[in-house]
Each structure stands twice: as structure tokens, then as C-alpha cells.
Amino acid sequence: MIESKRDELAALALRVREHIVRLSTDGGCFTGASLSCADLLVYLYADCLNVRPDNLTDPTRDYLFLSKGHDVPALYGTFVELGFLDKARLAQHLSTDDHIYWHPNRHVPGVEFHSGSLGHLPSVALGVAMDCRMRGQDNKVIVITGDGELNEGTVWEALLVASAHQVNNLTLVVDRNQFQANVATEDLIPLEPLAPKFEAFGCEVRRIDGHDFAQLEDAFSALPFSQTKPSVIICDTVRGRGLPSIEARADRWFCNFSAEEVEELLRELHSQEATTLTSETLTVR
Amino acid sequence: MTYEELIKETALADDRLVVMTAENRALIRNLPAVLGPRFIDTGITEQTLIGAAAGLALRGRIPVVHALATFLTLRAFEFIRTDVGIGQLPVKLSGFVPGFLSDGNGPTHQAIEDVSLMRGIPGMTVFAPADEADMLAMLPAIWASPAPAYVRINTRPATYEHAPFEMGKAEIVAEGTDVTILTYGMLFEQTLVARELLQAQGKSVGLVNLRSLKPIDEAALLDVVRRGSLIVTVEDHFITGGLYSILAEVLLRNQLTARVLPLALEERWYRPGRLSAVLEHEGFTGQHIARRIAEALGEGNASFAARPILENQFAE
């Protein structure tokens, strides 16, 4: 990836993180889980997928399904920055006058399907991928799940079926931020070794640093990984990425900060250089 | 015409139709060869089946989805409610062996809360044909509607010549002054017998085949209520949430009351066996229904002859 593009994506991701922080007050939102997938969503919408505000009804567009629906702030922040969503609507967060609440819904342009109940969208995305293939279209169909979400049997059931039907235009992406809602995944329902599990379910798997735009580009531009199998990309990420004060903390899934704390976090966000986020911050606290 | 022939004909004329199944192929065995990729068998995965159907519907398809009624409505309930219901997608659910039709399978397979569950989902429509002819008459309208739908599949041969189907309308088989039977699904056949037995003893017996439980033909129900005689609801469903409940809701909504005898399954699953044995044991043969109604009319000494009951064919 050329440096200028990487800088551009990083700048975009920073603005998305600002939206996430600003939404983390007055009722709050799922701050930690949003920050972990902000880079992934920015990369996919800004640089990878053929989906734009002006082609949302084009059946040949690419599809992104956000199955871990609680990272609405990252999704809507990305939508605002890329012109899908009017920024003024974010001010309506948790107002019953609009539909900007804790989980995605189709009242927001760009949201392909509502989510919130975990383990649903792998199968919905499977149906969409099957139809694209039936029509001879080569749309990418991406579904993003959390890692805690992998506790749900229906994720695996959908992969069994996708694998049986050789649905190679379906890609499941795991935001592997190491946390369930309240505890570290490995302390509750251990997932590792994760890649071999997906391989055993008939998928072609890659594992990357989900905050590294060059690695994201390498992986996503190689899709489909196989002509006969669904693809899986495990993105190793950090819950709360970008804000060291809340990074990798079990108690920073959902956050509801005071106005003063938000200002402090925004200062913290801007004081971070990408290079200071090292493997140290990847260590689960 | 059979169920399979109707799907085939409809699908060949409309490429939006996709046939899906969780490996329940009893009624659709010949469709893979005809429909190719538009026949999708997801294996024994009711939840994935519904999720994928929602995805196909998002892309403009009309999935007709098959599974045993109990696993479809219970195992996949949240997928139906959340993906199909919230999405208001035109997914058409075909539930096999609902109610007494799962005869020998046992309580795991008894879909006797399906009407209650499905009608509780906003926007979902619910249908229960009396027999194969009744079902074939209603399916084209159900599949053509933009609404999600649940159909209690019933392929038993008709013993009555039905009127044409009209969406949201019940079939008024007969009007009566002593009693009116309200029913739906496979028990229609037995209520027809019960009516005949009671009529032979001089009773004037009305009979309504509801056909559609949602939308419900409220006007037809109110007509029956205003007649003022005994009303009997007959259903192979738990007493909670089915026709008896629907009637109660209609009565309250209209600030009316009525004398109602509910014949339903009260707080228990039914004893499994061959269909004739189940109906006999549970008191739902035409003979038993006639006897139970006569008792409610204060004529407990009346006796009615038994009629042979056509057994069910095994359907996986």
C-alpha cells in the first residue's frame, strides 16, 4: 500500500474515532467494540468495496453485513465521513425522532440489514451470496462478526452450509478484539486456535492485524481465497483502539462518559501517533 | 394437481420463487431436477435456512421454505421474528405435519403452539387449510402477497367441495341456529362429520372453516356471535393463543360475550399414535366432537356412530 493512501485512511479513521467518542455520552454506546473495528470499516468502505451512497440499490454492488451490530458508532461514523449519512443525524443519537440507536437498522442508508441479535447475519449474508452467484454476479459479500459472537452456533451452522454449497463469494470477517461483552474470550469460551476451526469447517482462512491498512489491503484484494470455499479473515484487533486509557479493558465495552471525559478522550485520541500503538497495547490487561 | 406440481408451475412462471428446505423433502422430491440452483437444501439447519431465506428475499426472491412445523416455528422462531418479521420480507413458511398430523412422532414433533407463535409476529400472516384442495386454492394468493406467511401444510384429500379462496375470508360451510362450529386445518374433516351426525339428530349446526387465522375474518366471527347460539372452537392446538384466543380477542374488542365451548389441547401434549388412535384418544373424531357438543347442549345421552378415519402417510 502506498504511503499516501495509508495516511489518508488513517486520517479518515481518526475522524471516525472522533464520532465514536462523541457518541459515548448522553446514554452512551459500545465504545470499545466500535474502536476495534473502525480501521476495518474505514478500509472496506473507503478503499475496498464497490458500495457508495449512489449505488445502494444497484444489485451488483458489494454487500457488507455488520453482524456484531453494537459497533454502530464505527459504522455510522464511517457513513458520515463517506457521505452515506447526514452528520446532523448523529446528533439524534438515542432520540425517538430518528433511528440512530445502539444497533444498525435500514432507516440508515448503507445499512444492508438490521442486526443486534448475534449469529444472524452470517446466514442472511449466505442467502445474499447465493443469490448473487445464482445470477452470475461477482459481488463481494462480507459479513463482520465479533469474536464473542462466535459462541453462537448459528455462525458455524451457516459456515457448514456455505462450505457445502461452495459459496466462494462469501467472506466472514472476525473482529478478534479478544473480548466478549464482559470478559476476555479466552477466560470464558476459549476460541484459540481459531484459524484451524474455520479451516475444519471448510473455509480458506487468513489472519491479519486488523489495524494495519496494508495487511487489510493484501488480504481483501486476494478475495476470493478459493474457488470452492468461503473465505474467512481473522482481524486481530484491540478493543478501544486509539485510546490507551480504555484499550483492552473488559469494562470498556459499553461506555457512557461525561461531557468533560469526552473532551479529555478527544485530546487523548489526537495525542496518539499511530506508531505509538505497539504490541504493548495489544496485551490484554 | 399436487403441492409439488403447484410449486413447480408457479416457479417456472416466476423466477423470483426459490424453494428451500431443511432436508424435509417429502412433498418436493422432484423439484431439484426441475429448479436447479433455485432449489436449496441447507440440511438440518432451520435457523440458517430462515436467515438465508431472508437474504434471498432481500435480493428480490420469494423463498418458499420447508421444514417440520415444530422445528420451523420453534427452533427458528427468533430468526423468523427477527430476520423475516422485523425485515417484513416475503418469506413463505411451509410447516409440515402441524398439529395432529405428526401423529406417531411424539411431543418433540407436535406443532401445537405454532399458530400462537406465528400470529404474534407483526406483519406475519397465518393460514391453515382444511385439506389439499383447500390448500392449493389458497397458496397462489399467499405466495403472490408481499407479506411473510406461515402455512400449516395439509395434504389430506378433501371430503368437501370448497368455495374459491378469498384472502382474509372464512369459508361459511353452513349456518345453524343451535350451535356453530369454528375450526381450521385438518380437523375440518372431523367437524364436517360431527355436523352431519348432529344434524341427523335434528340439530341445526353451523360450520365455519376459518382458512386464515391472520388476517382473521372478524365479520364472519361477529355474524356467528350475533346469532346467539353456542359456539364451539375446534383446533389441534394448545388452547392458549389459537382460535379460542382469537375469538376471545374479537369478542372483547367488540365488547361482546358469547357462550363458547373450546375443544383444544389444554396444558398438555397429545398422546402419540396412528392418527385414528390419536383422534380417538384425544376426543377429536367426528363422533367425539358430536358427543362433546351434544353434552354442552344438555343432551348427554345422545349416541353417535363412529366413522372410519383415513390414516396419515409417514412424512419426514
Write up what this structure looks like.
The complex is a heterodimer of chains A (285) and B (316). Chain A is an alpha/beta fold and 285 residues long. Chain A has one domain (3-282): 3-Layer(aba) Sandwich (Rossmann fold), CATH 3.40.50.970. Helix content of chain A is 39%, strand content 10%. Chain A has ten helices and five strands, in the order H-H-E-H-H-E-H-E-H-H-E-H-E-H-H. Chain A has helices spanning 3-22, 31-48, 72-81, 121-134, 153-164, 185-188, 194-200, 213-220, 259-271, 279-282, and strands at 63-66, 141-146, 170-176, 204-209, 231-236. Chain A has a five-stranded parallel β-sheet with strand order 1-2-3-5-4, sandwiched between helices. In chain A, helix 1 runs antiparallel to helix 9. The radius of gyration of chain A is 18 Å and the shape is globular. Chain A starts with a helix and ends with a helix. Mean pLDDT of chain A is 94; it is low at 275-285. Chain B is an alpha/beta fold. Chain B folds into two domains: 3-152, Rossmann fold, CATH 3.40.50; 171-296, 3-Layer(aba) Sandwich (Rossmann fold). Chain B is built from twelve helices and twelve strands. Chain B has helices at residues 3-13, 31-35, 46-58, 69-75, 77-87, 114-119, 132-144, 188-200, 218-227, 243-253, 275-282, 286-296; strands at residues 17-21, 39-41, 62-68, 92-96, 125-127, 149-152, 171-174, 179-183, 205-209, 212-214, 230-238, 260-265. Chain B has a seven-stranded mixed β-sheet with strand order 2-1-3-4-6-5-10, sandwiched between helices. A five-stranded mixed β-sheet of chain B has the order 7-9-8-11-12, sandwiched between helices. In chain B, helix 8 links the parallel strand 8 (179-183) and strand 9. The chains are: A alpha/beta (285), B alpha/beta (316). Chain A binds chain B through residues 59, 112-114, 117, 120-134, 154, 157-158, 160-161, 164-165, and chain B through 37-38, 40, 42-43, 45, 47-61, 63, 78-79, 82-83, 86-87.
